[in-house]
Design a protein that fits this description.
The chain is of the alpha+beta class and about 180 residues long. It has four helices and eleven strands. It starts with 10 loop residues before the first helix and ends with a helix.
Amino acid sequence: MTSFAVTTLSLDSFLEQENIDESPAWELIKGVPSQKPMPTLFHSILQKRLTALIDSFNSAYEAFPEFRCVLPENSVVPDIAVVKRDRLPKENGPFIGAPDWAIEILSPNQNVTRLIYKLQICLGEGMQLGWIVDPTEQVVMVLLPSDRLVLQRGIDELIGLDPLPLKLTADGLFSWLQ
């Protein structure tokens, strides 16, 4: 595995690196490059099902797994990035800007504080909604632009991106893992 020789990089230097899109992808947050953890089975199941559910609404939004989003100083790769279609690049190139909704699925030994920080950066760049899905605790942490953090579990209907008719409870989401 290739690693970066320096501890901090500029965004331009980071984006010039050849290995940033190897699997799992690399991200740059506040000048510090780091590689995402290798997904687990539960991670992959939730990522697959959530992407399919969001895309099933046939709305103006589309869900993308592992989609690089280039921000003014950072480069993030949410587990699922939901973006309004009219914001997508017209040609093959990087997506510039925060997703409208980013979903992160917590992997074992992954730092939840780092994920919260990453989603707060995206919220500061115009993202409307962030989720951190914790399969172990069976809770969804919802981050909103108002700086609110809402913990949803059990029969709580999950806060989704308006106007998507999500109609999904935390129990329903985690039932996909059984």
